[in-house]
Amino acid sequence: MRYEPSPPQVVSAMLDLAAVTEKDVVYDLGCGDGRIVIEAAKRYGARGVCVDIDPRRIAEARANAAAAGVVQRIEFREEDLMRSDLREATVVTLFLSYDLNLALRPKLERELAAGTRVVSHWHRMGDWPAVKTVHVEGPEPGNQVFLFRTPGSSRGIE
């Protein structure tokens, strides 16, 4: 899949929609340059996990986090997001594809606590109902951001 970073105004909208706080652990699946997790750490004091299969993206994310002064708040995982352990996430951010969102959905439902916030830029999650949708103004049309909450999961709320 090609790398396409989320515009800054979309990153802000994603974090605002998820109502991120310092108590959150924000996972960005397919993190690219790490901009979403870095912003969550800088603006809200959240902890974060950057997951990307591409070692160049992980190196870039780590360098960007160091430059932003938040590297100690972020874990970097060079791995396939379908194999990543997501159980600690309180917020999951996605800018993938519709098909990958659909493939990922059973994993999210299985591993995340009920009510975990999942925010997706551009792509829905099949028939999973969005709790809220916002349209982000910007240079490109179609910048929609969707907020989902995981249904009652096999893991339950802890």
Describe the structure.
The chain is an alpha/beta fold and 158 residues long. The chain has a single domain, classed as Vaccinia Virus protein VP39 (Rossmann fold, 3-Layer(aba) Sandwich). The chain contains four helices and seven strands, in the order H-E-H-E-H-E-E-H-E-E-E. The protein has helices at 8-17, 35-44, 55-68, 98-111, and strands spanning 25-29, 47-52, 74-78, 91-94, 117-121, 132-135, 144-149. The longest helix has 14 residues, at 55-68. The chain is globular. Mean pLDDT is 92; it is low at 153-158.
* Individual helix count: 4
Give the count of structural domains: 1
Largest sheet descriptor: 7 strands, mixed
Shape, per Cα inertia axes: globular
Number of strands: 7
Strand content: 15-25%
Helix content: 25-40%
Derived from helix and strand composition plus strand pairing, the structural class reads alpha/beta
What kind of assembly state do the chains in view correspond to?
Answer: single chain
Q: What is the terminal-to-terminal distance?
A: 35 Å
Please compute the radius of gyration using only Cα atoms. 14 Å
State the order of secondary-structure elements, H for helix, E for strand: HEHEHEEHEEE
Uncertain runs: 153-158
Give me the CATH architecture, please: 3-Layer(aba) Sandwich
Q: What's the rounded overall pLDDT mean?
A: 92
What is the CATH homologous superfamily assignment?
Vaccinia Virus protein VP39
The level 1 CATH classification is Alpha Beta
| Strands side by side in the biggest sheet | 3-2-1-4-5-7-6
